[in-house]
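Homework help board

Subject: predicted structure for assignment chain

Our instructor gave us this sequence and asked us to write out the predicted structure in token form, then describe one feature. I got the tokens but I'm not sure how to describe them. Can anyone check?
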Amino acid sequence: MKKKKILIITASIIISLFLIALFLGLSDSTETININTEEDIVSGEETTLEVTDSTGAVLESAEIYSNEELIGETDSQGQITFETPPEENIEIRGTYNGIEQTITIETVSSEDYNIEIKQDDVQPGETIQIALFLGEDRISGEQITVNNDEIGETDILGRIEFEVPDEDTLSIIAPNINTEKEVEFTEEKGEFDYSIDLEDIEENEIRILTVLDDENSALENVEVYLDDEQMEETNSSGQTELNFSEAGQKNLELRKDSFETVQETVNILEASDQEEVEEDDEAEDLEINLLNTPREGEETQIEFLSNSERVNADITIDNINHGSKRPFL
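My token output:
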């Protein structure tokens, strides 16, 4: 009986000592807490903190304050994610079971990051190298996307290589630090060399347009517009007929891929009745009057009238053409 009592007392003492040691160990481990931050924290962007005890064990439900404003508690992983205020310095305070830790974070601006392209005159299909910098420091391990496709992380020197996609714009983004660089590809365009007589164009008149390139070669399939109305495209000789069907001011425009668009203003005149007037003039009778009595060897005066008005006329006497004469001969 005494033996059993001794064993029971001994077991109780051992369990008590174990519990005391365990309690003391737990107490010691939470005498201090640590607030661990990411390497570079960008002001105005999201960041993640981790809270641990002195042994490195994560602490759940630790309260976190940013500039004395409660932002929440750590999760089961001892972490909390929040958006940093747009300030250069942020005071972070953590509390756990009455134990506090305060740190000051010096943030960086997203404008301090820079994506540098190593090659000049980048073109689609080429393999290029970029480098990511914060000021003069290279940033490694940062995820990079190119035209919305993830291509990997920057190496220890902040570099990464990739093939430029065959698109009009190259967009390089480091999403975690909200840094972007864009390159627009501008294709060098040719110039039209064209010829057309645009002087004194009358309505319903047809003129020939000839279009050449800068090497003086005929350009086929050039789109021709007159006030946005598409006309016939140029043929294999670089030519097309333009029918200026209406009088007024028109806009002539030439278009073709890889060429600079050309515009020119054309004034189209109303059709004149000049031909009708000329026909009427030819139909008019010419009246000839002798102003004195003709005598041999003497000057004779002749008057030419058309519609009762004196006019010049071409005179032939005795089969001899005396040319165009004034109203008096």
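Reply (TA_rk): Your tokens look well-formed. For the description, you could write something like this. The chain is about 10% helix and 45% strand. That's the kind of observation they're looking for.
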